[in-house]
Amino acid sequence: MSSITDTLSNLLGQTAFLNLTWGNYLMILVAFVFLYLAIRHGFEPLLLVPIAFGMLLVNIYPDIMSQPYTDAAGIEHAGGLLHYFYLMDEWSILPSLIFMGVGAMTDFGPLIANPKSFLLGAAAQLGIYMAYFLAIFMGFNGKAAAAISIIGGADGPTSIFLAGKLGQTALMGPIAVAAYSYMSLVPIIQPPIMKLFTTEKERKIKMEQLRPVSKLEKILFPVIITVVVCLILPSTAPLIGMLMLGNLFRECGVVKQLTETASNALMYIVVILLGTSVGASTSAEAFLKLDTLKIVALGLVAFAVGTAGGVLLGKVMCKLTHGKINPLIGSAGVSAVPMAARVSQKVGAEADPTNFLLMHAMGPNVAGVIGTAVAAGTFMAIFGV
Hints:
The chain is mainly α and 385 residues long. It is built from 20 helices and two strands. The chain has a two-stranded antiparallel sheet with strand order 1-2.
């Protein structure tokens, strides 16, 4: 009888029920909310589903993120499964591969056809620099503030990349989750800001059709951007280089297999690995801290200011061009491709169902990807990384 009792006691002791804290239950609830938003409402499910499931796993079974160790008897024990996924985040492997996939999937033609889009992409980086100084004011050191501020670009891969390069791995989990959460919530966060800073008349502005872009221009663009940006900021090479390599695959027309792999199979494999590992960095012990709340708040402020910055410059350009530019496309200057461009299209269509802004918004959207990477490279140069 005692052996049966001992067996049942051991089995009970091995369950998660006795080991979970209130914080674990809270994070499990957050994971359920993320899953609901992704599945029921379709908020970027490719990002939120793996992130939410990683969050669920680590708060039920924390050892899934444990590091390798050697016990007292000298026996080596392997780390948890998602620990090895997470190492690829810290080593900047997965963020760089994500950029290659984005490049292979994205048409840079709208940016080439309308180079003024670079200005809108630059204006949308205003939130990054404002968040940097605000983070320092809130008590973060310079490197931590820089890593946090990149959330304002709504660019998860760049946020992870910069946090790793600046040695802020302790903050990488909250930074990555905040960045990817705001990327997923672009359709909720941006429209009120866009409507606040524009009039209905401005939202109804129809833009002229973009000029055709030749194949030669599309081939030369990624090569020239790589050379120029990487000569000025060599530390951006892993991100800018992979982004432009993916786009060169797409545009050169002679490596169809590489284009398909980079934009489909490889991209989705990387999203699974990165999403689950990012979610698994949110154990209650690591995530439920005051600094985490500060990071989430700073990220939201940065993202809101970045959106407003793009829209406000769009208004200025609208005035200067006598109404030829719809200010809504400025909101797409953040780095969430192509979600931000879709939101510009949606808000414009609400004002006038015949308005088509998507391709015009893709110019600032692509410029925002480049701009966020340049901002990250600037911070690395400042701190000598």
